[in-house]
Amino acid sequence: MFNWLQYFADWLIYSVLGISATTHLGEALNFFVFDSIKIALLLFLITILMGIVNSYFPVEKIRNYLSRNKMYGLEYLFASTFGVITPFCSCSSVPLFIGFVKGGIPLGITFTYLITAPLVNEVAIAIFAGAFGLKVTAIYVGTGIVLGILGGFALGKMKLEQHLTPWVQTIIANAETEEELEEEKLTLSQRFPTILKEAFNIVKGVSLYIIIGIGIGAAMHGFLPTGFFEHYINKGQWYAVPLAVMIGVPMYSNAAGVIPIIQVLVAKGIPLGTAIAFMMGVIGLSLPEAMLLKKVMNWKLIAIYFGTIAFFMILSGYLFNSIF
Question: 311-324 pLDDT, tens per residue?
Answer without folding.
Answer: 988 988 898 888 87
